[in-house]
Each structure stands twice: as structure tokens, then as C-alpha cells.
Amino acid sequence: MFRDRSFRLFFTARTIAVAGAAVTGVAMPILVFDISRSPFLTSLAAAGTVLPYLVFGLFAGAVADRVNRRTVILCAQAVAALALASIPAAQALGVLTAWHAVGVSMCIGTCFVWFDAAAFGALPALVGRQRIPAANSALWTSSTLVDVAFPAIAGVLVASIGPAYALGADALAYVLAGLAMASIGASFSSTPAVPKKSEPGIARDIREGLSFLWQSPLLRALTGVGFVNSLTQGAVTALLVVYATEGLGISTSSPMIGAVWTAVSVGGVVGAVLLPRLPAQWPVGAITVGALTIAPVVLFVVATTSNTAAAITALTVYSGCATVTILNGIGARQRLTPDRLQGRVNTTARMVAWGGSPVGALIAGAIAGRWDIGTAYLVACSFALVGALFAWVSALRTDPCPHR
Questions:
Q1: 328: Cβ–Cβ under 8 A, 6 or more apart, which residues?
Q2: Domain spanning 1-194: CATH 1.20.1250.20
Q3: Which of 330, 362, 323, 374 is nearest to 348 (CA)?
Q4: Residues 6+ apart with CB under 8 A from 211
Q5: Which residues cross the membrane (predicted)?
Q6: Do 97 and 115 form a contact (C-beta atoms < 8 A)?
Q7: Which of 33, 86, 264, 382 is 20 to 30 A away from residue 275, measured at CA?
Q8: How far apart are alpha carbons 111 and 268 in whole angstroms?
Q9: 233-287, pLDDT tens digit by residue?
Q10: How far is CA 336 from the centre of its chain?
Q11: What is the CATH code of the structural domain delimited by 201-404?
């Protein structure tokens, strides 16, 4: 793959962008919490990175296939860079507010929707359909390694120069990623983009995808637990900075603040590496039921302990369980869905699942603001318990389908 100059530049751009996003993932909630001391606004900033996908996802995907993908990608990266650069500028002028930061969070979330929609179609055009698995594997490996390493680096950066100026690193990352993308000489489309008028069949196609999901007991159950899993994840990850400071006593100016995000990233990598190594005879349902059963147990530890080592260990295990649940569901949909429905079914299922994240974030933020972070995480634990109970009484428990 790396002998291909176009892929090298695409890979470099994505890796730089993921590294910048990892810095923002740590710095943004710290910034909002430092300014406002409001768990709700902190959770709103986290939800802002997901909400735009629910609003613009289907539309952005349709538009990105009808216009020049390179233009969409470069415009999205340019707007995101300008939005992020406004934060250190406002800090230097003494006019930065929490709502400004929340607005920037939603802006870069919106830019990601358009970037993702265009990049999804650009990769096959750049590398050819037969090399898509190798290309995706390289991109995924890079992203997971960055997700493990950069939260700790971001913690040091935030402690050294402050969260507002740390966000300038992400703005620079978008600029560098945009330059790498602009340097790709190959076309981002297999065929010339031809703008079309809106087609009435889009609504019908969405209904067909929903119908397929609903009519399959296994996929319906996986989509349901996916929503609850996302609900729980949204509640947990949106308040990591509040949990670190109020629950574990870690200062936002301490480099240790990044260790909490690193634990979540490490757990995700472990879950992703573990899933393909599970015995082939284990059914999809059994794996998901097992992961969902462990999740509320370790989240209860997270919610009730003040010991940093115990909390980080429990967060790592929880993140691994959540990742296994997500990837197991994606794999099952890809194997069981007819080729002509793959795009619609997987996009629909992802949007349903992602819908839980901002809801969980906002609920937990409101509860932490009214009571405390421990109560908010106990509510997240109850979400996970509901997901486990649902899994036990659903088609997942009797599913005979091997997970590979």
C-alpha cells in the first residue's frame, strides 16, 4: 500500500487529523469545564461532536457522491482549522467563553460529517476496490495507535500551555492534513461527479434499510443494544474530565489528566484485538451478551471508587467491552446483509446507535450538575445494566450464528 504515493498522502493526512482530534478530545472538555465549572456544558461540548452526524449524515453522504469530493474534504478541513484557531485567538484577547468553545465543538463535528462522507467514497477511488481491506487496515491501525498515545501527550500539552492554546495544535493539524490531501494528484472519484436533482427514491431506500433491520431478530437486537451501549458510552466519556477532577482528585493542570483518556483508548484497542481471536464457534449473540454483562459490573467500580488505579483499570475493561459490542455488531451486519443493502443498513444502524451518545452525555451532564459525578456514573451503570438485561431476553441469547 505504501508504494502508492496517493495512499501515502491520504494516510498521512488522516493520521495527522486523528492526532489533532485526540488532542481536542482531551483539551476541549477541560477548557469548557475550567471556564464554566458546569458538568452540563462539558457534556454538551462532547455531544456536539456527535449530534451533527445525526442531523447531516444521510444528506452529506448523498451530496458527497454528487459533487467533487476533493473540494468537500478541503473545505471541511479549512473550516475546522479556522474554527479551532478562533479559540486561542479569543483566549489571547480575553473574550473566550464556554459557549464559544461549545459552538466550535459543534462546528468541527459538522465538518467531520462532510469530511467523512467524502473520504468514505474517495478511498476506493484512490486505491482500487481490491485494496480497500489493506488500506482500511493500515488506517485503522494508525488511528488506534494514535488514540492510545496522544491522550497522554495531550495531557502534558494542556498542563504546559493550557487547554485553549493546546487546541491550536489541532488547528495546525487540520492545515497540514489539508495540504497533504491537496497534494494528491489522483482523482477522488471513480467516475466524474455529476450534480443531480434530489431523487424521491431516497426516502424509500431509507425505509427499505430500516425494514431489513427490523425483520431480522438478530440484527434488530444488535441495533437495540448498540443504542444502549452508545447511551452508556456517551454518559461515561463526556464527563471524563469531571470524573478525573472531582472523582479522582486529578488537577486539570496535571499531566496525569491524560491517563484517564488513555485508559479508555487502551481498552478499545484490547477489545478490537481480542474479538478476532475469539473461537469461531462462539455465536455473535453469546459474545455480545458476555461483553454487556461485564460492563455494568466494572462501571459500578468506576462510579464508587476514589482509587485512581482501580478506576483506570475498570475504565479500561469497560472500554474493551464496549468496543467488542460495537465491532461484533458491525461484523454481523456486514455478513448477514445483502450487498445491495449494505450501505443503507450499516448507515442506518450506525446512526441509530450514535443517537444514544449525545442523549447519554446530556443526561449524565444534567445529573452531575444537579448532584455529583458519582451519581451520574451510577446512572450510566444503570444504562449498562438495562443493556445487559435486554441482551439476555433478546434473540442474542439464542443466536446460533458464529461470529466469523
A1: 222, 275, 284, 287, 288, 291, 403
A2: yes
A3: 330
A4: none
A5: 12-32, 44-64, 71-93, 99-127, 139-165, 171-188, 221-244, 256-275, 282-303, 309-330, 351-371, 377-396
A6: no
A7: 382
A8: 25
A9: 989 988 888 899 888 888 877 877 778 888 888 888 788 778 777 776 788 888 9
A10: 24
A11: 1.20.1250.20
